[in-house]
Amino acid sequence: MHKDVEKILLNQEEIANICKNLGAKITEDYKGKDLLVVGILKGSIVFFADVIRNIDLDINLDFMVVSSYGAGSTTSGMVQILKDISVDIEGKNLLIVEDIVDTGVTLYNVKNVLLERGAASVKICTFLDKPSRRTADITADYIGAEVPDEFVVGYGLDYAEKYRNLPYLGVLKRQVYEK
Ligand code: IMP
Ligand code: MG
Hints:
- By secondary structure, this protein is α/β, with parallel strands linked by helices.
- It has a single domain (5-26, 33-172), classed as Rossmann fold.
- The protein contains four helices and nine strands; from the N terminus they run βαβαβββαββββα.
- The strands form two sheets. Strands 4-3-2-5-6-7 form a six-stranded mixed sheet, sandwiched between helices. A three-stranded antiparallel sheet has the order 1-9-8.
- α1 (12-29) packs across α2.
- It is globular.
- It starts with a strand and ends with a helix.
- It binds inosinic acid and magnesium ion.
- Inosinic acid binds at residues 43, 68-69, 75, 98-106, 151-153, 157.
């Protein structure tokens, strides 16, 4: 275990199961429909790669970079699109893949932008949900796991761009971000 991690919340086996179950549900729900899976970079990359390989349908992929967090651990409440989807989404079914829904501000804004562009549907698949911190009116359609109000890292999630490559999800020691 990494020295900055206090405890492991989800190990590799548990994460693999989560992705398998989510992929099966998504496969079921979108049978016979077109599907564009949109990953929100960078946090979702590891989860995205695992979930799409559990979707047994013909799908398209794209990515967005949005920013609502600086280097710190609390939200600024602002969302900026730094990299946009490169295809026309009018009439398409979109599935946004995100690492974690915290305040929900990021996804609330992203979802509205995509609906305004004429997407037929926009659903959300998140690896983690932190409902205790929600301020925006948004609920994910597919949720891997619920986490308590603690700062988590690994499996794509970072603190100041570190720890994304840890193969498990861990709670970051408070002293790492409180100094
Ligand atoms: P929201 O707009 O507050 O829902 O923020 C969502 C974004 O904040 C996520 O995509 C993450 O990048 C980041 N975030 C929120 N909580 C955590 C956490 O516990 N660990 C790592 N990143 C987090
Ligand atoms: Mg993120």
